[in-house]
Amino acid sequence: MSEVYAARRKRLKERCSAGGSASALISRPANVRYLAGAAPQGAVLLLGADEDLLVCTGPPDDRPHEGRPDEALKVQVLSHSGGDPVVSAAGLLTDRGGDSLAVEEHHLTVARHRALRSVAPRLRLADLGGAVEQLRVVKDEEEISCLRIGAEIADQALGELLESILVGRTERHLALELERRLVDHGADGPAFVTSVGTGPNSGRRGHRPTDRRVEEGDFLSVCLGATYRGYRCEIGRTFVIGTSPADWQIELYDLVFAAQRAGREALVPGAAYRDVDRAARQALDSAGYAEGLPVLTGHGVGLEIEEDPQLGPAAMGKLEACVPVTVEPGVHLPGRGGVRIDDTLVVRPEADGGPELLTITTKELLAL
Predict the structure, then answer these.
(1) What's the pLDDT tens digit per position in 226-272?
(2) Fewer C-beta neighbours within 10 Å, C or N terminus of the chain?
Protein backbone atom coordinates (compact mmCIF):
# COMPACT_ATOMS: atom_id res chain seq x y z
CA MET A 1 0.00 0.00 0.00
CA SER A 2 2.98 2.35 0.44
CA GLU A 3 3.05 3.05 -3.29
CA VAL A 4 -0.68 3.83 -3.22
CA TYR A 5 -0.31 6.43 -0.47
CA ALA A 6 2.74 7.93 -2.15
CA ALA A 7 0.84 8.25 -5.43
CA ARG A 8 -2.07 9.97 -3.65
CA ARG A 9 0.26 12.46 -2.00
CA LYS A 10 2.01 13.11 -5.30
CA ARG A 11 -1.28 13.94 -7.02
CA LEU A 12 -2.19 16.36 -4.26
CA LYS A 13 1.22 18.05 -4.32
CA GLU A 14 0.91 18.53 -8.07
CA ARG A 15 -2.40 20.33 -7.52
CA CYS A 16 -0.86 22.48 -4.79
CA SER A 17 2.12 23.35 -6.97
CA ALA A 18 -0.19 24.36 -9.81
CA GLY A 19 -1.95 26.69 -7.36
CA GLY A 20 1.31 28.29 -6.25
CA SER A 21 1.86 26.48 -2.93
CA ALA A 22 5.01 24.47 -2.33
CA SER A 23 3.60 22.70 0.75
CA ALA A 24 0.26 21.55 2.13
CA LEU A 25 -1.06 20.90 5.63
CA ILE A 26 -3.80 18.28 5.92
CA SER A 27 -5.78 18.34 9.17
CA ARG A 28 -9.14 16.69 8.45
CA PRO A 29 -8.82 13.16 9.94
CA ALA A 30 -10.35 11.26 7.01
CA ASN A 31 -8.07 13.11 4.61
CA VAL A 32 -5.01 12.39 6.78
CA ARG A 33 -5.87 8.70 6.80
CA TYR A 34 -6.42 8.67 3.03
CA LEU A 35 -2.98 10.10 2.37
CA ALA A 36 -1.00 8.62 5.26
CA GLY A 37 -2.64 5.25 5.96
CA ALA A 38 -3.62 6.24 9.50
CA ALA A 39 -4.92 9.27 11.36
CA PRO A 40 -3.82 9.15 15.02
CA GLN A 41 -5.83 11.37 17.35
CA GLY A 42 -5.15 15.01 16.42
CA ALA A 43 -2.46 14.18 13.86
CA VAL A 44 -1.79 16.35 10.81
CA LEU A 45 0.10 15.64 7.61
CA LEU A 46 2.64 18.10 6.27
CA LEU A 47 3.45 17.64 2.59
CA GLY A 48 6.66 19.31 1.46
CA ALA A 49 8.72 19.48 -1.68
CA ASP A 50 11.39 17.16 -0.26
CA GLU A 51 9.74 15.28 2.61
CA ASP A 52 6.30 14.40 3.95
CA LEU A 53 5.79 14.39 7.71
CA LEU A 54 3.06 12.98 9.97
CA VAL A 55 2.94 15.16 13.09
CA CYS A 56 1.33 13.46 16.12
CA THR A 57 0.73 14.21 19.79
CA GLY A 58 1.80 10.67 20.69
CA PRO A 59 3.10 7.47 19.08
CA PRO A 60 0.68 6.05 16.47
CA ASP A 61 -1.53 3.21 17.68
CA ASP A 62 -0.63 -0.16 16.19
CA ARG A 63 -4.17 -1.61 16.17
CA PRO A 64 -5.09 -2.78 12.63
CA HIS A 65 -8.54 -1.16 12.57
CA GLU A 66 -6.95 2.22 13.34
CA GLY A 67 -4.75 1.91 10.26
CA ARG A 68 -0.97 1.99 10.12
CA PRO A 69 1.06 4.97 8.92
CA ASP A 70 2.74 4.54 5.57
CA GLU A 71 6.26 3.26 6.26
CA ALA A 72 7.66 5.80 3.80
CA LEU A 73 6.41 8.65 6.00
CA LYS A 74 8.52 10.24 8.69
CA VAL A 75 6.57 10.47 11.97
CA GLN A 76 7.21 13.44 14.27
CA VAL A 77 5.85 13.01 17.82
CA LEU A 78 5.49 16.24 19.79
CA SER A 79 7.92 16.42 22.69
CA HIS A 80 5.44 18.04 25.09
CA SER A 81 1.82 17.23 25.87
CA GLY A 82 -0.87 19.70 24.97
CA GLY A 83 0.89 20.94 21.85
CA ASP A 84 -1.03 21.55 18.65
CA PRO A 85 0.28 19.56 15.66
CA VAL A 86 -1.01 22.26 13.28
CA VAL A 87 1.11 24.92 14.97
CA SER A 88 4.10 22.60 15.27
CA ALA A 89 3.93 21.67 11.58
CA ALA A 90 3.84 25.33 10.57
CA GLY A 91 6.85 26.02 12.75
CA LEU A 92 8.76 23.10 11.24
CA LEU A 93 8.01 24.39 7.74
CA THR A 94 9.30 27.89 8.48
CA ASP A 95 12.42 26.46 10.14
CA ARG A 96 13.13 24.67 6.85
CA GLY A 97 12.73 27.86 4.85
CA GLY A 98 9.21 27.25 3.55
CA ASP A 99 7.35 30.34 2.38
CA SER A 100 3.94 29.05 1.22
CA LEU A 101 1.40 26.62 2.63
CA ALA A 102 -2.03 25.40 1.50
CA VAL A 103 -4.35 24.57 4.42
CA GLU A 104 -7.81 23.06 4.78
CA GLU A 105 -9.67 26.21 5.80
CA HIS A 106 -12.96 24.32 5.93
CA HIS A 107 -11.54 22.20 8.77
CA LEU A 108 -9.26 24.57 10.70
CA THR A 109 -10.93 26.53 13.47
CA VAL A 110 -10.41 30.27 13.66
CA ALA A 111 -8.36 29.77 16.83
CA ARG A 112 -6.01 27.29 15.16
CA HIS A 113 -5.68 29.52 12.12
CA ARG A 114 -4.65 32.44 14.37
CA ALA A 115 -2.20 30.25 16.27
CA LEU A 116 -0.64 29.11 13.00
CA ARG A 117 -0.32 32.75 11.93
CA SER A 118 1.35 33.66 15.21
CA VAL A 119 4.20 31.15 14.80
CA ALA A 120 4.61 31.69 11.05
CA PRO A 121 3.61 35.31 10.30
CA ARG A 122 5.57 35.42 7.03
CA LEU A 123 4.14 32.19 5.67
CA ARG A 124 1.91 32.77 2.63
CA LEU A 125 -1.29 30.81 3.23
CA ALA A 126 -3.70 29.52 0.60
CA ASP A 127 -6.92 27.54 0.85
CA LEU A 128 -6.63 23.90 -0.20
CA GLY A 129 -10.41 23.70 -0.41
CA GLY A 130 -11.88 20.25 -1.01
CA ALA A 131 -8.92 18.99 -3.04
CA VAL A 132 -8.42 15.83 -0.97
CA GLU A 133 -12.15 15.11 -0.83
CA GLN A 134 -12.25 15.29 -4.61
CA LEU A 135 -9.40 12.79 -4.87
CA ARG A 136 -11.30 10.46 -2.54
CA VAL A 137 -14.45 10.28 -4.69
CA VAL A 138 -13.20 7.53 -7.05
CA LYS A 139 -12.12 4.46 -5.08
CA ASP A 140 -9.47 1.91 -5.98
CA GLU A 141 -10.27 -1.80 -5.78
CA GLU A 142 -8.65 -2.16 -2.34
CA GLU A 143 -10.98 0.50 -0.97
CA ILE A 144 -13.99 -1.13 -2.63
CA SER A 145 -12.95 -4.48 -1.16
CA CYS A 146 -13.10 -2.95 2.34
CA LEU A 147 -16.58 -1.57 1.59
CA ARG A 148 -17.66 -4.95 0.26
CA ILE A 149 -16.55 -6.72 3.43
CA GLY A 150 -18.28 -4.08 5.55
CA ALA A 151 -21.49 -4.62 3.58
CA GLU A 152 -21.26 -8.39 4.12
CA ILE A 153 -20.91 -7.80 7.87
CA ALA A 154 -23.92 -5.47 7.93
CA ASP A 155 -26.00 -7.95 5.92
CA GLN A 156 -25.04 -10.74 8.29
CA ALA A 157 -25.91 -8.74 11.42
CA LEU A 158 -29.29 -7.72 9.99
CA GLY A 159 -30.07 -11.24 8.81
CA GLU A 160 -29.46 -12.69 12.26
CA LEU A 161 -31.67 -10.11 13.90
CA LEU A 162 -34.54 -10.97 11.58
CA GLU A 163 -34.40 -14.58 12.77
CA SER A 164 -35.01 -13.57 16.41
CA ILE A 165 -38.21 -12.74 18.27
CA LEU A 166 -38.95 -9.04 17.82
CA VAL A 167 -42.38 -8.35 19.33
CA GLY A 168 -42.12 -6.65 22.71
CA ARG A 169 -38.52 -5.52 22.32
CA THR A 170 -37.63 -1.83 22.28
CA GLU A 171 -36.09 0.11 19.42
CA ARG A 172 -33.11 0.89 21.64
CA HIS A 173 -32.53 -2.75 22.51
CA LEU A 174 -32.65 -3.84 18.87
CA ALA A 175 -30.22 -1.10 17.85
CA LEU A 176 -27.73 -2.10 20.55
CA GLU A 177 -27.98 -5.74 19.54
CA LEU A 178 -27.29 -4.88 15.90
CA GLU A 179 -24.22 -2.87 16.84
CA ARG A 180 -22.92 -5.73 18.99
CA ARG A 181 -23.42 -8.17 16.12
CA LEU A 182 -21.47 -5.88 13.76
CA VAL A 183 -18.44 -6.04 16.06
CA ASP A 184 -18.88 -9.79 16.61
CA HIS A 185 -18.61 -10.32 12.86
CA GLY A 186 -15.42 -8.31 12.46
CA ALA A 187 -16.43 -4.68 12.02
CA ASP A 188 -14.33 -1.91 13.57
CA GLY A 189 -17.66 -0.67 14.86
CA PRO A 190 -20.91 0.85 13.54
CA ALA A 191 -20.51 3.31 10.67
CA PHE A 192 -23.03 5.64 12.36
CA VAL A 193 -25.66 5.53 15.07
CA THR A 194 -27.93 2.59 14.21
CA SER A 195 -31.51 3.62 13.50
CA VAL A 196 -34.43 1.37 14.44
CA GLY A 197 -37.96 2.77 14.05
CA THR A 198 -41.22 0.98 14.79
CA GLY A 199 -44.84 1.89 14.12
CA PRO A 200 -45.20 5.68 13.79
CA ASN A 201 -41.41 6.07 14.01
CA SER A 202 -40.69 3.85 11.03
CA GLY A 203 -39.36 5.36 7.83
CA ARG A 204 -37.92 8.46 9.51
CA ARG A 205 -34.48 9.32 8.20
CA GLY A 206 -31.95 9.48 11.04
CA HIS A 207 -34.46 8.37 13.69
CA ARG A 208 -32.78 7.83 17.05
CA PRO A 209 -34.08 4.67 18.78
CA THR A 210 -36.48 5.13 21.69
CA ASP A 211 -38.02 2.87 24.31
CA ARG A 212 -41.07 2.20 22.13
CA ARG A 213 -41.72 -1.54 21.91
CA VAL A 214 -42.35 -3.48 18.73
CA GLU A 215 -46.04 -4.32 18.24
CA GLU A 216 -47.97 -6.64 15.94
CA GLY A 217 -48.75 -4.96 12.62
CA ASP A 218 -45.96 -2.38 12.92
CA PHE A 219 -43.69 -1.32 10.14
CA LEU A 220 -40.11 -1.87 11.36
CA SER A 221 -37.45 0.17 9.59
CA VAL A 222 -33.77 -0.45 10.25
CA CYS A 223 -30.74 1.49 9.01
CA LEU A 224 -27.28 0.36 10.01
CA GLY A 225 -23.77 0.35 8.71
CA ALA A 226 -20.42 -1.29 9.37
CA THR A 227 -16.94 0.22 9.44
CA TYR A 228 -14.19 -2.06 8.17
CA ARG A 229 -10.58 -0.84 8.08
CA GLY A 230 -11.92 2.69 8.21
CA TYR A 231 -14.39 2.34 5.32
CA ARG A 232 -18.10 2.80 5.99
CA CYS A 233 -21.16 1.44 4.20
CA GLU A 234 -24.87 1.40 5.01
CA ILE A 235 -28.03 -0.59 4.48
CA GLY A 236 -31.67 0.19 5.26
CA ARG A 237 -34.67 -2.12 5.13
CA THR A 238 -38.33 -2.05 6.16
CA PHE A 239 -40.43 -5.02 7.34
CA VAL A 240 -43.88 -5.73 8.77
CA ILE A 241 -44.16 -7.32 12.20
CA GLY A 242 -46.08 -10.47 12.95
CA THR A 243 -48.91 -10.36 10.42
CA SER A 244 -49.77 -9.94 6.78
CA PRO A 245 -49.18 -6.36 5.62
CA ALA A 246 -52.17 -4.04 5.39
CA ASP A 247 -53.12 -2.73 1.95
CA TRP A 248 -51.71 0.74 2.69
CA GLN A 249 -48.41 -0.81 3.81
CA ILE A 250 -48.10 -2.85 0.61
CA GLU A 251 -48.94 0.17 -1.53
CA LEU A 252 -46.42 2.42 0.22
CA TYR A 253 -43.71 -0.22 0.20
CA ASP A 254 -44.16 -0.94 -3.52
CA LEU A 255 -43.92 2.76 -4.27
CA VAL A 256 -40.66 3.27 -2.35
CA PHE A 257 -39.23 0.08 -3.81
CA ALA A 258 -39.98 1.33 -7.34
CA ALA A 259 -38.30 4.65 -6.56
CA GLN A 260 -35.24 2.92 -5.14
CA ARG A 261 -34.97 0.61 -8.13
CA ALA A 262 -35.17 3.58 -10.51
CA GLY A 263 -32.34 5.28 -8.63
CA ARG A 264 -30.19 2.17 -8.71
CA GLU A 265 -30.73 1.68 -12.43
CA ALA A 266 -29.66 5.29 -13.09
CA LEU A 267 -26.18 4.67 -11.63
CA VAL A 268 -24.11 4.62 -14.80
CA PRO A 269 -20.83 6.41 -15.54
CA GLY A 270 -21.57 9.83 -17.01
CA ALA A 271 -25.00 10.18 -15.38
CA ALA A 272 -25.56 13.56 -13.76
CA TYR A 273 -25.95 13.46 -9.98
CA ARG A 274 -29.25 15.32 -10.23
CA ASP A 275 -30.56 12.82 -12.80
CA VAL A 276 -30.06 9.94 -10.37
CA ASP A 277 -31.97 11.92 -7.77
CA ARG A 278 -34.70 12.75 -10.29
CA ALA A 279 -35.09 9.10 -11.31
CA ALA A 280 -35.80 8.04 -7.72
CA ARG A 281 -37.79 11.13 -6.74
CA GLN A 282 -40.11 11.13 -9.76
CA ALA A 283 -42.11 8.08 -8.70
CA LEU A 284 -42.69 9.54 -5.22
CA ASP A 285 -43.52 13.00 -6.57
CA SER A 286 -46.11 11.63 -8.99
CA ALA A 287 -47.81 9.72 -6.17
CA GLY A 288 -48.23 12.91 -4.17
CA TYR A 289 -45.34 12.57 -1.75
CA ALA A 290 -43.28 15.56 -2.91
CA GLU A 291 -43.58 17.21 0.50
CA GLY A 292 -41.34 15.80 3.20
CA LEU A 293 -39.02 13.81 0.93
CA PRO A 294 -35.35 13.65 1.95
CA VAL A 295 -33.12 16.43 0.63
CA LEU A 296 -30.87 13.81 -0.96
CA THR A 297 -31.64 10.51 -2.65
CA GLY A 298 -28.15 9.30 -1.80
CA HIS A 299 -24.52 10.18 -1.24
CA GLY A 300 -21.00 8.85 -1.51
CA VAL A 301 -19.46 6.62 1.15
CA GLY A 302 -15.91 5.75 2.08
CA LEU A 303 -13.74 6.86 5.00
CA GLU A 304 -16.76 8.91 6.06
CA ILE A 305 -20.38 7.84 5.89
CA GLU A 306 -21.43 10.92 3.94
CA GLU A 307 -18.98 11.91 1.23
CA ASP A 308 -19.17 13.41 -2.20
CA PRO A 309 -20.99 13.00 -4.48
CA GLN A 310 -24.31 14.25 -3.20
CA LEU A 311 -27.26 12.88 -5.17
CA GLY A 312 -29.74 15.73 -4.89
CA PRO A 313 -31.89 18.01 -7.06
CA ALA A 314 -29.30 20.80 -7.15
CA ALA A 315 -26.15 18.66 -7.22
CA MET A 316 -23.60 19.49 -9.90
CA GLY A 317 -21.37 16.90 -11.53
CA LYS A 318 -21.46 13.49 -13.15
CA LEU A 319 -20.78 9.98 -11.87
CA GLU A 320 -17.58 8.16 -12.67
CA ALA A 321 -16.86 4.44 -12.52
CA CYS A 322 -15.71 3.04 -9.15
CA VAL A 323 -17.65 5.58 -7.12
CA PRO A 324 -19.57 3.98 -4.20
CA VAL A 325 -22.88 5.64 -3.34
CA THR A 326 -26.08 5.00 -1.46
CA VAL A 327 -29.58 5.07 -2.93
CA GLU A 328 -32.01 5.59 -0.06
CA PRO A 329 -35.44 7.03 -0.85
CA GLY A 330 -38.12 6.90 1.80
CA VAL A 331 -41.56 8.14 2.77
CA HIS A 332 -42.78 8.80 6.30
CA LEU A 333 -46.46 9.37 7.07
CA PRO A 334 -46.86 11.28 10.37
CA GLY A 335 -48.63 9.19 12.96
CA ARG A 336 -48.61 6.04 10.82
CA GLY A 337 -45.02 5.24 9.92
CA GLY A 338 -43.26 4.70 6.67
CA VAL A 339 -40.76 2.94 4.47
CA ARG A 340 -37.10 3.41 3.78
CA ILE A 341 -34.97 1.22 1.51
CA ASP A 342 -31.25 1.90 1.42
CA ASP A 343 -28.44 0.17 -0.48
CA THR A 344 -24.73 0.79 -1.00
CA LEU A 345 -23.62 0.27 -4.59
CA VAL A 346 -20.54 0.90 -6.72
CA VAL A 347 -20.92 2.61 -10.09
CA ARG A 348 -19.71 0.29 -12.86
CA PRO A 349 -20.02 0.52 -16.66
CA GLU A 350 -22.53 -1.73 -18.39
CA ALA A 351 -19.67 -3.71 -19.89
CA ASP A 352 -18.77 -4.74 -16.33
CA GLY A 353 -22.33 -5.65 -15.41
CA GLY A 354 -23.64 -2.26 -14.35
CA PRO A 355 -23.86 -1.01 -10.75
CA GLU A 356 -22.44 -3.46 -8.21
CA LEU A 357 -24.82 -4.04 -5.31
CA LEU A 358 -22.84 -4.45 -2.07
CA THR A 359 -25.75 -4.81 0.38
CA ILE A 360 -27.76 -7.87 -0.64
CA THR A 361 -30.33 -8.48 2.13
CA THR A 362 -33.67 -9.13 0.46
CA LYS A 363 -35.87 -6.15 -0.40
CA GLU A 364 -39.02 -8.28 -0.37
CA LEU A 365 -41.62 -6.99 2.10
CA LEU A 366 -41.29 -9.68 4.76
CA ALA A 367 -43.74 -10.27 7.62
CA LEU A 368 -41.55 -11.19 10.59
Answers:
(1) 999 999 999 999 999 988 999 999 999 999 999 999 999 999 999 99
(2) N
